[in-house]
Amino acid sequence: MTSPFANPNRPGVPPRLPTPPTGWPIGSYATYEEAQRAVDHLATEDFTVQDVMIVGVDLMLVERITGKLTWGRVLATGAASGAWFGLFVGLLLTLFSPEPGVTVGPVLTGLITGVFFGLVFAAVGYGSAKGKRDFQSASQLVANRYDVLCHPKSAEKGRDLLARLAMRPANPSS
């Protein structure tokens, strides 16, 4: 019998294609941190953690707004991004230069060119949005709860270990 927790072509490697989770539930937690703590406990107790998976249930995409976009912020970010790329290209040019030692010319040329193109691409991108998205954000995929599933052959032992963990008070420092 093959394990539903591993790729049959390469044991110990998760499948490449989206595959629904299988196994029996041995714990359910409100936060990912609690589910991680449960799996850490199983690992500490020498449980075969390769038989375990954490499954986020009722997924939500949360977009937290981090700031307002302005022309100044967009151009400054574009210039900084272009400067880093230009500096990188300039340093590569000096590595392959026939002249010995680091010369300032290719580095300075790469830096100035990078800043220019960074400004242009940032301005074109922001201008084409026409004010439809004048904010910065960070997205995060979160779940309403996190279930710990286990291969059926080890589920009873896993439930027993997690029940003992639930009896102990949570230690925030561990």
UniProtKB/TrEMBL annotation:
Residues 26-99 form the General stress protein 17M-like domain. Keywords: Membrane, Transmembrane, Transmembrane helix. Residues 1-22 are annotated as: Disordered. It comes from the Bacteria. InterPro entries: GSP17M-like_dom. The chain crosses the membrane at residues 74-96, 108-129. Residues 11-22 have a biased composition (Pro residues). This is General stress protein 17M-like domain-containing protein. It comes from Lentzea albida.
